[in-house]
Each structure stands twice: as C-alpha cells, then as structure tokens.
C-alpha cells in the first residue's frame, strides 16, 4: 500500500505541475509602494468623480431646460391640487343645491305630513 500512496501523491503532484497551478510565493509590498498605489487609486477615483460632477453641472446643448423634470413634477402636483379643489367646489355646490331643493318643497311636504297627522291610519288587529 505504501507504493500506491506514493504513486498517488506523485500523480497529483505531477498533474498540478503540468497544469501550472503551483502556489505563487507571497509578495509583500513595502510601505512606500503601498502609499504610492493608494495615491494613484485615489487620484483616478477623484478624476472620475469630478468628470461625473461636470457632466451634471453643464447643460446639454440640445436640452435648453436642464431642470425640466423637476418642473414637470411640480406642475403635475399643482394640476392635481387644482383638480381636487374643483371637485371640492363641485361637491359644495351640489350640497347647497340639495339644501335649496329641500327648502323649496316644504309646503308640499307639510301638507302631506299634516294630513297624515290629522287622519292617522290605524290598523287594528283582532285575535280570534
């Protein structure tokens, strides 16, 4: 069995070398190199951020109104408020009209109610 185990280890070791998947030795950066790398990364990131900010600041030549979206949102909100105000006014008008109608017909209603109070209809129940 010792021969089989050694042959397995050799095969696995040989296959890893054939594929070229050896472990690379660790390479540690010196303090100065790490600082230079961090500074270069920071400068690249800062440049990207500034370019993005410039894109947002400059108006596009084809778009004369850069704040068009905010104006559209505000105007749509204003339109909704106006429509709500119109609906409230309509409801108030209808309510007043109903009240006027109720006040306009009390003479007819009073005649009916007064005749009912004068001659009440009584239903009598008789038990056998």
Provide tags for this entry:
mainly alpha, 128 residues, 4 helices
What does this structure look like?
With 128 residues, this protein is mainly α. The chain has a domain at 88-117. Helix content is 74%, strand content 0%. It is built from 4 helices and no strands. The chain starts with a helix and ends in a 10-residue tail after the last helix. 0% of the residues are buried. The mean pLDDT is 76.
The number of helices is 4
Shape: elongated
Low-confidence stretches: none
The helix-and-strand class reads mainly alpha
Total strands: 0
Strand content: under 5%
Biased composition (Basic residues): 92-103
Region (Disordered): 1-34, 46-128
Biased composition (Basic and acidic residues): 65-85
Biased composition (Polar residues): 1-19
